[in-house]
Amino acid sequence: MATLLAGDIGGTKTLLSLHTAGGSHPELLVEDRYVSADWPDLAPMLNHFLREGAAKAYPKPQVACMAVAGPVQAGRARLTNLPWVLDQTELALACDLQRLELVNDFAVLIYGLPHLQASQLAPVRAGEAVASAPLLVLGAGTGLGVAFGIPTAGGLAAVASEAAHAEFAPRTAAEWELREWLRHDLKLERVSIERVVSGTGLGHLARWLLAQRHPDGDHPLSGEARRWQQALAAGRSDADLPAAVAAAAAAAAEPLACEALDLWLSAYGSVSGDLALACLSRGGIWLAGGTAAKLLAGLRSSTFLQAFQAKGRLESSLAGMPIWAITDAAVGSFSAACRARSLLG
Hints:
Layout: E1 3-9, E2 13-20, E3 28-35, H1 42-51, E4 63-68, E5 76-78, E6 85-87, H2 88-94, E7 99-104, H3 107-112, E8 121-125, E9 135-140, E10 144-152, E11 155-161, H4 173-185, H5 199-213, H6 222-233, H7 241-250, H8 255-279, E12 285-288, H9 291-294, H10 296-299, H11 302-309, H12 315-318, E13 323-326, H13 331-342
Parallel strand pairs: 1-4, 4-7, 9-12, 12-13
Antiparallel strand pairs: 1-2, 2-3, 5-6, 8-13, 9-10, 10-11
């Protein structure tokens, strides 16, 4: 039985997994989570997984794909939150693999799309996908990931993108005020899309509303906002204000939290529509990231969908594009396994 090694590498944790290579799609055999900062480099972690972990009970893989959070150039990647510089050729040699490929963590999702099962998806908007047209994957998690898929004779070609770092373009007076507040509060020269359209951005939206409406800190969420701001100042992003805001809004129990979520969903919808126009993604749009499953009702709401569609004379270009949410939290590892299977000789 041939096996595939897949990895989803993040600054906080790394998920390594072994999959079958046969069948209509890779099937998970075993997986393990590692605290990334506990390891000096990726190679020792991979060798530990293969030789000392549960994976040693299965045939040794010959090919691997590692999804990394950041750009990959000429087979090399420098991780933002870890002192690792990864080289795919060196990693393959160090782990006795025939081939290992590094792929951006959102670009890798393109390789998984044709193999996703119904249990890994949820419909957001109906439409008719055009098989020969480009695809779009984007997702708001801690940051905002974006990638495009281009159909070719040999299957989908993944195109990584840093579109999330383009300039945030306010559409309303409220968004302009938010942009200016962010620029001043975070001491920024420019405000990127990711500063607003991300899980972190949802937290910033709540902080902005709290600063405008409750400058004396007398709101129930004011304490959470202060704690999160202190975490940001200390270089940590693990405070849970975005999740707290989303949960409060979902329960419709807190007006300010609901307002923050509505503003965020509208901005997310607008950006999604802009990116869909950028590549004319008539092949479909997939929303991934940590917020996709948690905020599914919001993504299906008129707030998101109307902002997606509101593109003036080009509204008709977006009308038939179907939208799905990827609800599988392990889709990065699954997609890396799909890419690894294509590397088999």
